[in-house]
Amino acid sequence: MQILGFAKMTLLDYPEHVAATIFTGSCNFRCPFCHNGDLVLHPQDVPIISEEEVLCVLEKRRSLLDGVCITGGEPTLQPDLADFIKKIKQFGYLVKLDTNGYRPDKLAALLEEGLLDYVAMDIKNTKEKYAMTVGVPNLQISNIEKSVQLLLSCDIPYEFRTTAMRELHTLADFQNIGDWIAGAHAYFIQPYRESEQVISPGFHAHSPEELDEIKTTLQPYVKRVELRGIDE
Fold it and tell me: 3-class SS at 141?
């Protein structure tokens, strides 16, 4: 496993659980708004953390943690992801996977092996605007569609989520997304935030009023729609 980051404890990354978060390197997308630019564009320049170090910490923290979140980058690019998850599972942890959904066969295999307890999949935009949004001109939208269907039909907790930007997402776009993922358990909208790690800075968040309208528009389609990362 190419582990390039490790948060030993978080209350944010795994809903309703205390977890550790593991960050993998590399990604098959080039989303300009990505806030993990170093992991995506220059993973070779980020110090590698050994599996042994991570597993040692996880073993010691079994009494403190409920689960482990594996994020990135894009974790499904790691050829030994399944084997690594099996090692984590030996400690009794729940495992949450964050994914962009572009490798449905890998996602399906992990689900079939019972290695995942929660999946968070990004929905970057409508099908028509997906390639532009993720910076992949020859993107095969069928891969994303297959992963959406996998989660809609699976029997573990999951969520879809979108980072919302005024430049890329209209209210009509969210209505189209809602129709696409209709019947989903949960859909989280998180407003864009600028940071030093963003690949191409300059995007803007919707206003609180616009976000509320987006939420209202989506509620007929999805069982649970929430705004995430909103300042109180």
Answer: helix
Instruction: Write out pLDDT tens, residues 95-130.
Output: 999 999 999 999 999 999 999 999 999 999 999 999
Indicate if the pLDDT at residue 232 is higher than 60: no
The answer to whether the beta carbons of residues 174 and 214 sit under 8 Å apart is: yes
The range of the structural domain enclosing residue 21 comes to: 3-168
For the chain, the straight-line distance linking the first and the last C-alpha, in angstroms and rounded, comes to 38
Helix (H, G, I), strand (E, B) or coil at 227: strand
* 45-66 per-residue burial string, b: 16 or more CB within 10 A, e: under 16: ebeebebeebeeebeebeeebe
Please give the distance of CA 186 from its chain centroid, rounded to a whole number.
Answer: 13
Q: What is the mean pLDDT of residues 198-221?
A: 96
Q: Is 28 exposed, middle or buried, given 0-12, 13-18 or 19+ CB atoms closer than 10 A?
A: middle
Question: Is pLDDT at 154 greater than 50 in this prediction?
Answer: yes
The domain spanning residue 68 has which CATH number? 3.20.20.70
How many domains does the chain contain in total? 1
pTM above 0.90, yes or no: yes
